[in-house]
Amino acid sequence: MTEELQRLGLSGYEAKAYVALVSAGEAVNGYEVAKRSGVPRSTVYETLGKLVGRGAAFEVRAADGTGYVPLPPATLLERMRRDFDRTLGILQNEIPRLTAPPQVRLVHSLTERRMLLERAEDVAAAARSELYVLGWPEDVEALKPTIRRAEEHGVDVATVVFGADDDPVGRHTEHRYSAPSAVEDILGRRMLVVVADRDQTVIGGLATDRTWGLYTDDPAAVLLAYHYVCHDIAMHRVADRFADHGFDEFWAGDPALRRLREPVGEPVRAVDGAPRSVGPETDDQGVDIEDLGDDEDGRSRAG
Where is this region: Disordered (predicted)? Predict the structure, then answer.
């Protein structure tokens, strides 16, 4: 509790003294507060004076001297809420006036699941018109409180979840082509993509032993992330529409689609250590050798 009170603006000693007053249940003097809270006796009266100055505590006179009682916690928290709302309102109005047009775009790496989810939550909380989310159930679940708040404020929310979700949020799509386990095997990780207002995005990959990801407001990356999620939604709508017209057989049997579902894995390294993409063999100009052949005149199409 003392740590949370410090987050709301009290000092460490003030938080400890306030908690001691609340738990006492009666007026207590400075000596008792110091004994109950661990605040040094040399500073306890200064600390209590600051609480009184904040309106978080009151002095009471008694026959045996001065005692202190707390402002009721519910009242204190409501007062703090009003103060913070007032401050946020001022900052929301004034900071945009100081903001210069961006000269550079932000890109920063996210190397832990906690960091990735916190930054994804930031992006979801910033959405004002639309929010697109793609991920596995266990990762999307951590973002649902923020996603639901966005939806309650009128944000158009669309989610794509790789697996069953018993408590879906937004315009929900369950990813079915291919199965989540198959997709994870192909990618070597669980993907998480969050895009807000086509303005900023978090893109990440989560594996058992490693997490990587990035946040960016670069328009090129944001647009790619946005259309990545849109593509999955569109593909499932097409699959539903043509389910009775051989879509399953097409999806499972088409050679080009099978090739697109080949495992990604880690980048292959060339002899010089530079990364080389995993895929069909190419010549020095990057021409796909598998696609080379003769045209109807017997000449090589590569020529």
Answer: 263-303
Residue 202's nearest CA partner among 278, 277, 122, 105 is 122
pLDDT mean across residues, the chain: 83
User: Is there a contact between 91 and 97 (Cβ–Cβ < 8 Å)?
Assistant: no
d(CA 216, CA 228): 15
Peptide bond into 300 cis (omega under 30): no
CA separation for the pair 208, 42 (Å, rounded): 52
Name the least confident of 84-93, 109-118, 176-185, 221-230.
176-185
Task: List, in sequence order, every residue forming a beta bridge with 193; answer none if it has no partner.
Answer: 134, 203
Q: What is the pTM of this model?
A: 0.59
What is the rounded CA–CA span in Å between residue 76 and residue 52?
12
- Please, are residues 48 and 68 in contact by the beta-carbon 8 Å criterion? yes
Measured CA to CA in angstroms, residue 53 lies from 13, 42, 46, 60, 242 at distances of: 14, 19, 10, 14, 70
Residue 192: how many other CB atoms lie within 10 Å: 26
**Around 1, how many Cα atoms within 13 Å sit in the side-chain half-sphere?**
12
